[in-house]
Amino acid sequence: MALAFLLAEIRRIVEEIDEAARAVELPAGIRMRLLIVEDNVELSRLVANGLTAAGYESDIVGSAAEAREAVRNVSYAAMILDLGLPDGDGLAVLRELRRHMDPLPVLVLTARGGLQDRVNGLRSGADDYLAKPFALEELVARLEAILRRPGQLLGRSLRLANLVYDTESRQIFVDDQPRIISARETSVLEILLRRQGRVVPKKNVEDHIFGLEGEVASNAVEVYVSRLRKQLAEHGAKVVIHTIRGVGYLMAEEK
């Protein structure tokens, strides 16, 4: 009876998420990339649709082994982790991350809703814990709360010199005037602005743009960085993107 009720609730949530995803007109521009680890194919797909409507990109995997492989190869903003995976317990994946000092924010999303389950999840290193059934609005709110914490990626307005990037509207301003920069270049701009003054490894830039999309041309990042430099110069932005050969890129104020 409990299982039947849970499945019914999940189906209801799936329908709400799908409706929300259809109802939202998606803005152009960059979206933070998340990893969804969930073996229920329909639920994971529709959660991803709902998160897309909320402004995120998602990669989906259905097992602990795939989760480990994904985090080894892609730099994600956060992970949404189910615990009941077909090849093991999601807590084992979480503990491995923390044992290796990986700070990746993890929101556990699971049918295990008991007090001791929540305590175990948080003590294993989860940043937050949400039991199924759940509301999409709460999932998004909890995710945003995690990403707003010190050291994480979410910030509403990114500024450097006379350049401002509004992460909600995904609008770029130079000297308070709106400017148009193409989508891929905006992807590069955001990750460099979020880490301004620090070197961003080329692999992180590539992951931010492409995630698990597949084969990427070896010079793709260089091409987009070059185009971004040109567009920023044309718009009069007083910033510079330094190439740190063999390492990555650093954005700073023009001297």
From TrEMBL:
InterPro entries: CheY-like_superfamily, OmpR/PhoB-type_DNA-bd, Sig_transdc_resp-reg_receiver, WalR-like, WH-like_DNA-bd_sf. The modification 4-aspartylphosphate is found at D82. The keyword Cell division does not apply. SUPFAM superfamilies: CheY-like. Keywords: DNA-binding, Phosphoprotein. SMART domains: REC, Trans_reg_C. One of its GO terms (molecular function) is DNA binding. Residues 155-253 form the OmpR/PhoB-type domain. Residues 155-253 bind DNA. Residues 33-147 form the Response regulatory domain. Pfam families: Response_reg, Trans_reg_C. This is DNA-binding response regulator.
